[in-house]
Amino acid sequence: MKHADIIVIGGGATGAACALGLVREKAGTVLMLDKTFGIYRPSRANFGLTGYLLKGLNDAVYAKWAFKAIQEWAEFGPQLEQDSGISLDFALNGVGEPFLCEEEKAVRVQQTQQLKEMAEVNGYKYNCEILDRYEFSQLIPKMELGEKVIGGMFSSDNGHVNPLFMLRAMRKTYINEGGIFIAGESVMEIIPGQSHTIIKTNIESYVCSKVVVAAGHGSTRLLNHLGVKLPLFPLRGQLMVTNRQPPMLPIPLFLVRQTGEGTFMIGVSIEQAGHDIGTTVEAMNSQAKKAIELFPIMAEFNWVRSWGAIRVITQDDSPVYDTIPGHDNIFVLVGHSAVSLASLHSSIIPKWIISGRKPKEIENLGLRRFHV
């Protein structure tokens, strides 16, 4: 049986960010276990936006948490690039969304006003402008807008990153700073004890003082054995990528962004398809059609690849940070927006795990909210 001070189950964006923060905080021997079924990796379904736009519409705590994460990305991103030697294709130069009709605009105007009022009550500023067609076109001078575009919204302090480069950089830095990464082992069971916890995989057994369960949908199976029901469900996202183009789109949009390599990515489809990671002609047609309506020039691009992946979504869209009832040494981290929240998962969350004192910022983001 192998020993560690803290074991992190899950090597995706959430687990890797937390594990990295733990080694940076000198938390002792930190071991990260990852099943590495790449085809199910939620990072593949992530569009790469680092932002707080439209997050927390029904949850003021999550809205402020998402805002704080983006403020910390300004330091987290460059530091991760420096420590890992890996470019993240990271920028905080804004995120926008064009409107194709008055109905779309009306919804976003109402949501923006709601979030601005919520932010003012909670002591911060929700930065988002509603722009007319001309104003929005000035953000993207090298791409002509489609006839249907009537305007858009824009936030200057949101941004984007390559999620796979980010994951690689976090894992590399974690290992370089003394973390132990074990790939290819599937955790079969968590066995709590009074002074320690045993983790059984399909290959080995481990004993540790604290456990962090950050295995996405895999967390459901592991915690069911402990009598904990996670409020998770899968949503499939399909994405498409074009051939490389000269730099034309200086800011990412909700539907379209240009990557550091020059390819255009479109996506953010939302489908209830269980854990099926397949692609559909219908979804691809719908996304391509809308992208061309936004920018007619995209009809001339070659679409070279498409794929699907499964997102980790809670019942109320907000993340879950908690411990298991009766076992304060077993921590649970699950939810969507693992890329945007990586800065906090690597800073505030590790301090909570080490000290056992839950930060005020996330007091209301526990499991109890689903059972009242």
Structure description:
The relative contact order is 0.21. It is globular, with a radius of gyration of 21 Å. The protein folds into 3 domains: 2-53 and 164-231 and 316-370, FAD/NAD(P)-binding domain (3-Layer(bba) Sandwich); 95-156, no CATH class; 233-314, D-Amino Acid Oxidase, Chain A, domain 2 (2-Layer Sandwich). It is built from 9 helices and 17 strands. The model has no long low-confidence stretch (mean pLDDT 93). 30% of the residues lie in helices and 27% in strands. The longest helix has 25 residues, at 60-84.
Please indicate the percent range of residues in DSSP E strands (runs of 2 or more). 25-35%
What count of domains describes the coordinates?
A: 3
CATH architecture of the largest domain: 3-Layer(bba) Sandwich
CATH superfamily of the largest domain: FAD/NAD(P)-binding domain
**Span from first to last CA?**
40 Å
Total number of beta strands: 17
Please give the count of helices: 9
Defining key terms:
4-stranded antiparallel sheet, 30% helix, D-Amino Acid Oxidase, Chain A, domain 2, 8-stranded mixed sheet, 27% strand, 9 helices
Note the topology.
Elements: E1 2-9, H1 13-24, E2 30-34, E3 49-50, H2 60-84, E4 95-99, H3 102-121, E5 129-132, H4 133-139, E6 151-155, E7 159-160, H5 163-176, E8 180-183, E9 187-192, E10 197-201, E11 205-213, H6 218-224, E12 232-244, E13 256-258, E14 263-266, H7 281-294, E15 303-314, E16 320-324, E17 327-334, H8 342-345, H9 348-355
Parallel strand pairs: 1-2, 1-11, 2-8, 11-17
Antiparallel strand pairs: 3-7, 4-6, 5-6, 9-10, 10-11, 12-14, 12-15, 13-14, 16-17
Helix pairs in contact: 1-5, 1-9, 2-5
